[in-house]
Amino acid sequence: MTSIGTGYDLSNSVFSPDGRNFQVEYAVKAVENGGTAIGIRCKDGVVLALEKLITSKLLKPGANKRISTIDRNIGVVSSGLLPDGRHFVSRARDEAADWRRSYKAPIPTSALANRMGSYVQAYTLYSSVRPFGVTAIVGGWDLEAEVPVDGQVGSGPSVGSGGKVEGLKHGGPFLYMIEPSGLYWGYYGAATGKGRQSAKSELEKLDLAAGNLTLEEGVKEAARIIYVAHEDSKDKDFELEMTWVSSLAGPTKGRHEEVPKELREEAERLAKKALEGDDDEEEKMEE
Amino acid sequence: MNHLPQAWGRPRDDVYGAYDASHLQTSGPQQHTQSPIVTGTSVVAVKFKDGVVIAADNLASYGSLARFTDVKRLRKFNSQVVVGFGGDVSDMQYLDRLLSSLDIRENYSTTETPLNAKNLHTYLSKVMYKRRSDFNPLWNHILVAGLEHENKPFLASVDLLGTTFSSPTLATGFGAHLAQPILRRVVPDEATVESVSREQAVALVKECMKVLFYRDARSLDKYSIAVVTKDGIDLKEDEKLESQSWAFAEGIRGYGTQVN
């Protein structure tokens, strides 16, 4: 490893002479060993998927969910140290509830990403703490409809002062990834964890920026990409965990939910088939 | 407006006299709600064989003034519980937010069974009793309508003192006097519930809403009605009373302009 700290890596928040913060870089290393997590922003929703590595045969299959719901419309999946991920989720839920207390409305995904980015970044500043050992992917659907504020009982004026602005468009699918440094960007497709390299190259092939991929296709691609990313650690067992959030008109009615069992199994079947197909082609080429 | 910003938006001293600063005192005992301000009137509900029908009109009164006429006093909690609020509207809004935060927390995990009407009624009764024990009551009378385990119809009430009560027919406020006897005529006891159809129950509740509009001066002919069954909640928030007949009014004697 070229990045030997030579004394500048022993305390958090200390720069090395060439301007690096080693503790943060080591936190990124912790993430790089975690199971692959991805998020895909489709035109009508967001899919989150996780390669959940099975650490013991004594664990109940399908239990111990790792993708969490924040408020009703946002999901978080993380890769890296599991307890750090739990704490991240707990803080995100507090932030969402706090937002509701102040503004009587759900927190926009961008605002949550911003607040969590700030929170994670604060853990790079003090010697009394260590950085988060997770990279988290935050996906949500901000409601497109005019919704009443929490506790609203009447409709108020329809025009004039206090009335509605005509033709204002808002809401839609959003996807952010927050790194141990506190850095966060918005993405069309995000990947982290052990298999991120292959997952990223698969995501790039989807041309997500064009905005043509539907949510259902997204679910199938997500399953396939997790299977592709798992190729390098084939010796380990894993479970595929997938959640999605769609528009009000879509299958989840604006809520972040687990992908239904039937659809997930169908996606897994297709993913396995696609992988087998690849293997066949490779064999042919070798011939 | 003048050049003194501190005077903007205030009653002018030269016109109204100096403001009585004793209203602003910060010392003395802390006071809580002594009476409701903006209020909703009756909520009525009745069980039938597959579920519960619940209704409340869309009026919020400020004293005797019909202040807000599009106030929705029936609140969906989830797909199997509706909560109807009588009494103070701002306390209702507080409770609505409390319930929505409860619902969000409940849905963090999808593996657990959702809260049913009975669970929610227990929760609300504890909230109401806690607040009355703090001498700071939430000024409401609440009906919880929905389903309990095995999709059995559930109907119960809790009031500002934390008193709970359950019956196959319930009504709050003026309805407790005027609607409850009408409801009991059709559904006198728990055993009868099995023989009441959805249509009968809806017709019965609509009849009660009509009687309440005839005789309750704090009521409105626009109302909300919800039917909760295992297939979900059918909530209509903009219903209008049908086929009113005020012929009986002529026969009323003894007060108003007609003294005898």
Automatic annotation (TrEMBL), chain A:
It is found in: Cytoplasm; Nucleus. It holds the Pfam family Proteasome. It comes from the Eukaryota. Residues 277-287 have a biased composition (Acidic residues). Its main location: cytoplasm. One of its GO terms (cellular component) is cytoplasm. Residues 8-30 form the Proteasome alpha-type subunits domain. Gene3D superfamilies: Glutamine Phosphoribosylpyrophosphate, subunit 1, domain 1. Keywords: Cytoplasm, Nucleus, Proteasome. Residues 247-287 are annotated as: Disordered. One of its GO terms (biological process) is ubiquitin-dependent protein catabolic process. Residues 254-276 have a biased composition (Basic and acidic residues). This is Proteasome subunit alpha type.
TrEMBL record, chain B:
InterPro entries: Ntn_hydrolases_N, Proteasome_beta4, Proteasome_bsu_CS, Proteasome_sua/b, Proteasome_suB-type. It is found in: Cytoplasm; Nucleus. The keyword Cytoplasm applies. GO terms for biological process: proteolysis involved in protein catabolic process. Keywords: Cytoplasm, Nucleus, Proteasome. PANTHER family: METALLOPROTEASE TLDD (PTHR32194), PROTEASOME SUBUNIT BETA (PTHR32194:SF6). Non-catalytic component of the proteasome. Belongs to the peptidase T1B family. This is Proteasome subunit beta. It comes from Lepidopterella palustris CBS 459.81.
